[in-house]
From TrEMBL:
Organism for this UniProt entry: Halomonas urmiana
Annotated SMc04008-like domain residues: 30-95
Protein name in the entry: DUF1244 domain-containing protein
Pfam families to which the protein is assigned, alphabetical: DUF1244
SUPFAM superfamilies assigned: SMc04008-like
UniProt-listed InterPro entries: SMc04008-like_domain, SMc04008-like_sf
Gene3D superfamilies per UniProt: SMc04008-like (1.10.3340.10)
Length: 107
């Protein structure tokens, strides 16, 4: 993508991000803990990254507004409708992932 001008690259990246949000919205069955186990990020991470990007540019964006954008509805509503309790297996896999991360960061 190095051959693209900055505006085109930014537009493509923004389009890909919007597609990622649509994809996550279409797959509400994918729980945040699943994302954290497999990819080390979740919908909340995307919300925090949006807030950080806004801060870097001097734009005001609060976390709740960012989460509503990422989730497509207020977080509390999404949580009540779609979030399931993490299973013991998910909790164990998440703990193992965290432990492995700490080991590699400690090297």
């Amino acid at each position: 993508m190095s051959h693209l001008d900055d505006t085109t690259r930014t537009e493509l990246e923004a389009a890909a991000f919007r597609r990622l949000l649509r994809h996550l919205d279409e797959h509400k069955e994918v729980q945040n803990i699943d994302l954290m186990i497999l990819a080390d990020f979740c919908r909340n991470c995307l919300s925090k990254w949006l807030v950080a990007a806004a801060d870097e540019r001097g734009v005001e964006l609060d976390y709740d507004s960012a989460r509503e954008h990422v989730y497509g509805m207020p977080y509390g509503e999404w949580k009540a409708k779609y979030q399931q309790e993490a299973t013991p297996e998910q909790q164990a896999a998440f703990a193992a992932r965290q432990a492995a991360r700490q080991e590699t960061q400690g090297e």
